[in-house]
Amino acid sequence: MKSICERTAFAFWRARPQGLASRRGNVGRTDQEAIRLALSGDTKAMRALVDRLAPVVQGVVARGLLRARHRSERGVRQDVEDLTQEVFETLLDRDGKTLRAWDPGLGRTLESYVRLVAERHVISALRSRRRSPYTE
Predict the structure, then answer these.
(1) Which residues of 87-106 are buried (b: 16+ CB within 10 A; e: fewer)?
(2) pLDDT confidence of 10, banded at 50, 70, 90?
(3) Measuring CA to CA, which residue among 40, 35, 30, 12 is closest to residue 101?
């Protein structure tokens, strides 16, 4: 039987958007336009971008915490939410420098690029928090 941590993480993972991998073709140009609009201050475009990428980030974070057998007094759900927010801060910091660095010509979809950024952030956060865990 799965623990509550595993069930919670799996629920986040299952919440990822469906059909993203099947969208090909001219996706890069429309994604770049969505990023440009979102970072220029269009709140609807930002909301749509966050709604689209949040399940991807949450899935990566939840799987990373499970793999590390992360235990926290705060609970996995809270840690997933906090790390997800940190990933978005990383993506949008400095006028979206990390998000703007995505180049569809290099063969990655936007979701794949964000997944990579999230994986690196989770690994970094888990390493640093072993030495200095969250303080309440």
Answers:
(1) bbebbbeeebebbeebebee
(2) very low
(3) 35
How far is C-alpha 83 from the chain's CA centre? 8
pLDDT at position 53, please? Answer: 93
Nearest CA to 109 out of 48, 38, 21, 13 is that of: 21
**Which H or E run contains 27?**
helix 27-39
- The string of pLDDT tens digits covering residues 55-101 is 999 999 999 888 877 666 667 788 888 899 999 999 988 988 998 89
- Identify which of 99, 128, 10 has the alpha carbon closest to the alpha carbon of residue 61: 10
Euclidean distance between CA atoms 81 and 105, whole angstroms:
31
**Tokens representing 62?**
């939840």
Three-state SS at 49: helix
The predicted structure's pLDDT at residue 55: 94
